[in-house]
């Protein structure tokens, strides 16, 4: 009798345990948890882990510029404006600078737009320099560390190098005054002058409501194998090819233009977002700079990104394991792209789709208005929180100076 | 400024803009007019003039000739640049492998798709779609049992092929029950075996009558017979009545998986008038499921719901509109009308016809229905209470099924299995084969065979029969075709 009861208890235990296992399995069947090199940090809440003080700059640095050109709110560099607005009303903001871990300077350097809507970076170094002069003279916190506990949002093409042309940007290098500060930028390429160690890479701004408005039912079968819309040759600036995108986009076109699996063209269809949701792979090749909003769109629409940009550093690389989610193809391997993609084992592809289906993944790439938990704003704050506490050595002794305020091209030194 | 003019031609997607890559890159900053820049300006102007004269840009040739091309065996470069690209002041900081400058465009020796890889990609696509269906589609799909009454006639291949392809594309298991009037024939058997589906081919030993009224009645009997087979074999699944000449959208098969016991869908009636005398064809509008007397809209049969999506009644076919012009016999040139409610618009859970299964109380025993040989008009006769029918397709608003009856004349001949063996050798000129305009005698004189009609029918079947028109226009057209063929043959002979 006792043995019978004991056997019954064991059976019950096994049944319970297997049901729980089944439960877990069922939950992970559709999506998978995402954990990057820093651990399972995508869902962290930054509130309580850091405090940010927002400098009050005169209107000419931010609001007036925005008033002059409201297009800055919708282009792909709009993150700098939205981050300012988010921080103003966020729970991590503190009005007491003595207890702040990080200091934020709201200066919109990417809002000087041409008629076409592209930002001109020629005045940005002067603007940034003028802002830093202001905060260093009105508050003591800049001189305390020479900017090591300050962060700036510089979403332009090559970040704080403030130029759109790569050679010029490399020539200039990062603005000397920002050498010690933490830069939050979209540009990321390993071993490049314009990427400091410790910078936080963010995705470019893509309008979340516009993307939500174009969602199609998930039962629509994915029937396009590879999808891409964009330029292959930039005829205006690089007519012979080989310069734009280091020849990679042209190579994609020449090798695969007649391949039925590759739906690639230069058209601008109105069904661009819907088509991405019907594709399995979306190409994200470099252009004049290695990053592009295509990555954000691919992640939001569940299309596996195929990243063709050597040495690129992707957004939030320590929180998101991009190798597990996307496919990386070296630029020299582009002629073999079809072989590479068809030889990925099917369980890998299904796993990548499961990871992409995770809502945390999609949230982390977006800048929704108003901010939502686990979105890109919070990921930036998480990244800043992970850099805390500041090393004691960043605090300078009184009178010590590291930055050279007169370095850089002569034209940068003119007042703004 | 040069850069700004370059901006104008900018595409939307490029992140930034560039001036020309030539060394005479003048920034917005003041440029010092050194002798070097003047020299480059002059050289540039000279090159432009030469290109103008030659008619093409010759810089590529210059590069090709000046720099040796080091092409590896597996790739060729189109722009002729060398393998180490021009190193500008790229400032390769820290040993980066990535260099700014002009790179070659890598193209493999044969840049065309490889069929083996295309097949692999298709397998990947199939597997991804299967995964999508299992995650977001119907959970636990049930077998579809499609009941089709058919018989051997000219248009049978046309209709059955269409239905067969629809059923082959259904992503669930399908059992196809084909009931054939006039007994089991090899012609039908060979046709349905091409589908690759599980088929049950039943012969029904009564010949299909020529009058439409009688044909509808016989079809009902055949469907009851099929249900008897479902009952005997205890086939499990959802029974739908797929008539061979109907058209089904694939969404229909996903929608009927939602049925619990009995469901009804809206059927669009394509009661078209084939001849040109009848006036305008009805305009097809799918949004309004209400049939309107005045507006020429597509008549739709199906469930009618109130605003809270409960079944309140039925939209049925009003044949008063067409009374004078309806077809009486098969092959009649007038419009063929359906009955009030067609079988095709209903789906049943197959357990309703099983012998002893857990059936709800409102379904009659299968044996009671149609026992005395009376005509069973629609599956509603199986139910004691018609209000339990579930309306599908967003309460009948979506039309996913279209009813159509198009047949050739009952006495029209066609080659068996549509194989012409031995090949044709016709030398009969058209003038000697007047086309008979007299209608056939009804109802049983279909066996009259005229030899000329046979040969011309054979030509007709070869060239023009795969078209859904009424018999009369078909005859007119094929008479023209025969004329051309015969005349060419004449000229060839001469």
TrEMBL record, chain A:
Q: Which residues form the Exostosin GT47 domain?
A: 49-344
A single cellular component GO annotation: Golgi membrane
Localized where?
Golgi apparatus membrane
Q: How does it sit in the membrane?
A: Single-pass type II membrane protein
Major site of localization recorded for this protein: Golgi
Q: Which GO biological process categories is it annotated with?
A: glucuronoxylan biosynthetic process; plant-type secondary cell wall biogenesis
Q: For this protein, what is any one GO molecular function term?
A: 1,4-beta-D-xylan synthase activity
* InterPro entries recorded: Exostosin, Exostosin_GT47
**UniProt record similarity statement:** Belongs to the glycosyltransferase 47 family.
Q: What is this protein called?
A: Probable beta-1,4-xylosyltransferase IRX10L
What gene name is listed for this protein?
LOC105158287
Automatic annotation (TrEMBL), chain B:
A molecular function (GO) held by this record is:
xylosyltransferase activity
Keyword list, A-Z = Cell wall biogenesis/degradation, Glycoprotein, Glycosyltransferase, Golgi apparatus, Membrane, Signal-anchor, Transferase, Transmembrane, Transmembrane helix
Membrane topology term reads:
Single-pass type II membrane protein
Bias (Polar residues) occurs at 1-19
Under the cellular component aspect of Gene Ontology, which terms does the record hold?
A: Golgi membrane
Does the keyword Protease belong to this entry?
A: no
Q: Which domain of life is it from?
A: Eukaryota
- The transmembrane segments are 38-58
Major location (coarse) = Golgi
* Enzyme Commission number: 2.4.-.-
| Basic residues compositional bias, start-end | 464-479
Compartments annotated for it: namely:
Golgi apparatus membrane
GO BP terms, alphabetized = cell wall organization; glucuronoxylan biosynthetic process; plant-type secondary cell wall biogenesis
Task: Write out the ranges of the annotated region (Disordered).
Answer: 1-23, 278-304, 431-494
Regions of biased composition (Basic and acidic residues) lie at: 285-296, 480-494
Q: Which N-terminal stretch is annotated as signal sequence? A: none
Among SUPFAM superfamilies, the record links this protein to: Nucleotide-diphospho-sugar transferases
Query: What's its job?
Result: Involved in the synthesis of glucuronoxylan hemicellulose in secondary cell walls.
User: Per the similarity annotation, which family is this?
Assistant: Belongs to the glycosyltransferase 43 family.
Q: Which protein is depicted? A: Glycosyltransferases
Lineage in the entry? Answer: Eukaryota, Viridiplantae, Streptophyta, Embryophyta, Tracheophyta
Encoding gene per record: LOC105176213
């Amino acid at each position: 009798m006792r043995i019978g009861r004991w056997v019954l208890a064991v059976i019950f235990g096994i049944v319970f345990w297997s049901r729980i296992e089944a439960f877990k399995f069922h939950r992970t069947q559709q999506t998978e948890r995402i954990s990057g090199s820093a651990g399972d940090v995508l869902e962290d809440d930054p509130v309580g882990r850091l405090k940010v003080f927002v400098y009050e700059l005169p209107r000419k640095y931010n609001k007036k510029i925005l008033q002059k050109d409201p297009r800055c709110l919708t282009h792909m560099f709009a993150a700098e404006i939205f981050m300012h607005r988010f921080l103003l009303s966020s729970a991590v903001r503190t009005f007491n600078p003595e207890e702040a871990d990080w200091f934020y300077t709201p200066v919109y350097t990417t809002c000087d737009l041409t008629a076409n809507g592209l930002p001109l970076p020629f005045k940005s170094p002067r603007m940034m320099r003028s802002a830093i002069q202001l905060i260093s003279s009105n508050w003591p916190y800049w001189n305390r560390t020479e900017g090591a506990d300050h962060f700036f949002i510089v979403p332009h093409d090559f970040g704080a190098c403030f130029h759109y042309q790569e050679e010029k940007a490399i020539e200039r290098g990062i603005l000397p005054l920002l050498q010690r500060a933490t830069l939050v930028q979209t540009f990321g390429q390993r071993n490049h002058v314009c990427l400091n160690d410790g910078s936080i890479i963010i995705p470019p701004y893509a309008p979340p409501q516009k993307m939500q408005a174009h969602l199609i039912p998930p039962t629509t079968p994915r029937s396009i194998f590879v999808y891409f819309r964009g330029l292959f040759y930039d005829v205006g600036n690089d007519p012979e090819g080989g310069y734009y995108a280091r020849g990679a986009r042209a190579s994609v076109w020449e090798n695969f233009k007649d391949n039925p699996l590759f739906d690639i063209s230069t058209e601008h269809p109105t069904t661009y977002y819907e088509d991405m949701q019907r594709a399995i792979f979306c190409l994200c090749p470099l252009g004049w700079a290695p990053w592009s909003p295509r990555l954000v769109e691919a992640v939001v629409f569940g299309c596996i990104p195929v990243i063709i940009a050597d040495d690129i550093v992707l957004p939030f690389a320590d929180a998101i394991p991009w190798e597990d989610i996307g496919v990386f193809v070296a630029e020299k391997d582009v002629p073999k792209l079809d072989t590479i993609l068809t030889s990925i084992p099917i369980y890998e592809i299904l796993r990548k789709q499961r990871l992409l289906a995770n809502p945390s993944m999609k949230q982390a790439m977006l800048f929704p208005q108003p901010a939502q938990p686990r979105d890109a704003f919070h990921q930036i704050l998480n990244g800043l929180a992970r850099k805390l506490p500041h090393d004691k050595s960043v605090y300078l002794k009184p009178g010590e100076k590291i930055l050279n305020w007169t370095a850089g091209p002569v034209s940068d030194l003119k007042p703004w | 400024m040069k850069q700004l003019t370059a901006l104008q031609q900018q595409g939307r997607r490029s992140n930034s803009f560039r001036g020309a890559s030539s060394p005479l890159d003048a920034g917005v900053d003041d440029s010092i007019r050194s002798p070097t820049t003047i020299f480059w300006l002059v050289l540039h102007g000279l090159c432009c003039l030469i290109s103008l004269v030659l008619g093409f840009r010759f810089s590529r040739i210059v590069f090709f000739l000046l720099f040796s091309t080091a092409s590896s065996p597996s790739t060729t470069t189109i722009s002729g640049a060398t393998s180490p690209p021009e190193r500008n002041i790229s400032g390769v900081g820290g040993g980066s492998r990535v260099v700014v400058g002009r790179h070659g465009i890598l193209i493999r020796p044969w840049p065309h798709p490889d069929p083996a890889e295309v097949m692999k990609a298709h397998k990947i696509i199939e597997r991804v779609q299967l995964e999508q269906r299992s995650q977001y589609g119907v959970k636990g799909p049930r077998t579809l049992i499609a009941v089709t009454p058919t018989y051997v006639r000219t248009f049978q291949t046309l209709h059955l092929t269409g239905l067969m392809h629809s059923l082959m594309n259904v992503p669930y298991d399908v059992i196809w029950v084909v009931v054939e009037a006039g007994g089991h024939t090899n012609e039908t058997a060979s046709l349905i075996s091409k589908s690759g589906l599980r088929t049950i081919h039943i012969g029904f030993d009564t010949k299909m009558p020529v009058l439409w009224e009688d044909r509808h009645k016989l079809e009902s009997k055949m469907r009851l017979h099929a249900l008897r087979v479902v009952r005997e074999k205890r086939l499990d699944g959802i029974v739908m009545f797929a008539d061979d000449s109907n058209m089904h959208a694939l969404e229909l098969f996903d929608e009927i998986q939602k049925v619990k016991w009995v469901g009804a869908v809206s059927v669009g009636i394509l009661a078209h008038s084939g001849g040109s005398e009848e006036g305008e064809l009805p305009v097809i509008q799918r949004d309004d499921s209400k049939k309107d007397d005045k507006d020429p809209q597509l008549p739709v049969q199906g469930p009618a719901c109130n605003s809270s999506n409960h079944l309140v009644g039925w939209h049925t076919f009003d044949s008063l509109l067409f009374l004078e012009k309806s077809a009486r016999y098969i092959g009649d040139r007038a419009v063929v009308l359906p009955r009030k409610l067609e079988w095709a618009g209903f789906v049943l859970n197959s357990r309703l016809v099983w012998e002893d299964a857990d059936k709800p109380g409102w379904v009659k025993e299968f044996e009671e229905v149609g026992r005395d040989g009376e005509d069973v008009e629609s599956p509603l006769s199986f139910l004691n209470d018609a209000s339990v029918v579930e309306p599908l397709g967003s309460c009948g608003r979506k039309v996913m099924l279209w009813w159509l009856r198009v047949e050739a004349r009952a006495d029209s001949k066609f080659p068996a299995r549509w194989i012409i063996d031995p090949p044709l050798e016709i030398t009969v000129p058209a003038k000697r084969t007047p086309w008979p305009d007299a209608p056939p005698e009804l109802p049983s004189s279909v066996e009259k065979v005229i030899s000329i009609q046979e040969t011309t029918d054979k030509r007709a079947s070869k060239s023009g029969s795969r078209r859904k028109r009424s018999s009369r226009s078909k005859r007119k057209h094929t008479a023209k075709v025969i004329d051309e063929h015969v005349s060419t043959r004449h000229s060839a002979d001469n």
